[in-house]
Amino acid sequence: MSRSAHPAGPRHADVLPEGHYAGPPADLNTLDPQIWSRTVRRNADGVVTVGGLDVRALAEEFGTPAYFLDEDDFRARCRAWKDAFGSDADVFYAGKAFLSRAIVRWLNEEGLHLDVCSGGELATALDAGMPAERIALHGNNKSVEEITRAVEAGIGRIVLDSFQEIVRVAHIAEKLGKRQRVQIRVTVGVEAHTHEFIATAHEDQKFGIALAEGQAAEAVRRALKLDGLELIGIHSHIGSQIFDMAGFEVSARRVVQLLTEVRDEHGIELPEIDLGGGLGIAYTSADDPREPHEIAKALGEIVTKECEAAGLGVPRLSVEPGRAIVGPTAFTLYEVGTVKELEGLRTYVSVDGGMSDNIRTALYDAEYSVALVSRTSDAEPMLSRVVGKHCESGDIVVRDAFLPSDVAPGDLLAVPATGAYCRSMASNYNHALRPPVVAVRDGAARVIVRRETEEDLLRLDVG
Ligand code: LLP
After folding, report:
1. CATH of 138-321, one of 3.50.50.60, 3.20.20.10, 3.30.200.20, 3.40.50.700
2. Where is substrate annotated to bind (predicted)?
């Protein structure tokens, strides 16, 4: 719809930065299914529902801000990934995107594996009953305690990230009388098209061992000599929020090239490769993510083709999606507190959360969408900036968004696609209390991570 469809024209639209939204969406009341979780609808009264539950009732019961996670959607995405990759591959959910005991149980029930990257994530996984052999441990600086606990638990694999770690893990395993299954994480030298802080396969960064100049081949040589290690394969993760499959294809090709070199030098075929996570999701209607079956097809074909060309058996493949599973399944519900119109500029709509529950806008310039969800409105669209309540001007939740111009204190706004890296990166800045995560399914809602309380904050303060 062109702007002229709104006779008065959208308020403040002339100050939109280049490259951002072209203009207001056709209808501010319509929810784009691409960016909202599967059971989100607007009911006949104009109120948004999730899993059949009205957001006004949810706000009443659980308070705001709060994350509402659509359990059916989460499980459906787990199944879509598992089915797409089939029985010759393993799907490891990346727990850093969001982890809780309930999530671990769902993953377990859906037959997924789990990637953890800290002692805390490992503890959560084990506590909630994930079989140790289905867990992988990551990290560029795992502590001796973390490695020991993982080896003792009988973890399925540890992904080695440095020369020191090869020796460290081998020693710990030997001391415990075990042989630990490991992969070596390599950096393949791909520049992923994403934010610098979340790109991980170019050479000048902290993760992995470079393929360049034979570093990775040397790591393989050393790992193969150590009795405490069973080297099962090579790992590569090129970054996050990536839409273009080309980077994954280059990565797959280079990893297979290393397998070929290992076969030629040592006479062994490493049985597994892991191509990491990083698949992008839709945060706004402009994003066009790939479906799991397209990703599985593209990766499967390239690995098979490269292996055939090299005369290698096709290794077992694994992938580690985090965001692509949990990201689209949740939205954050906020209540509007104040509305401040800056004449000729934009309108600042302040909500009761902010950078403590979603740091991604401030940290990566991430784009989000937002909708008025407690009612519909026919008011003209107004260029808005949704901001939080923190003492910092960079405390922005949604930088540029159109909201109806009658948005007012007491209205509920929802920001979709906040399932990944929002609660897991939440902070207590300004002594904010981190919001709860409420799982919604078939007309029932239950808290899976409760809201923090002032007692929680004060309990840590022992002075
Ligand atoms: N595997 C490894 C080894 C990783 O380092 C990561 C993410 C993943 C898998 C999962 O990536 P995903 O599929 O979720 O993109 N905090 C940033 C993202 C950092 C991701 C770190 N590693 C964000 O909010 O965008």
Report:
1. 3.20.20.10
2. 323, 360, 364, 392, 421
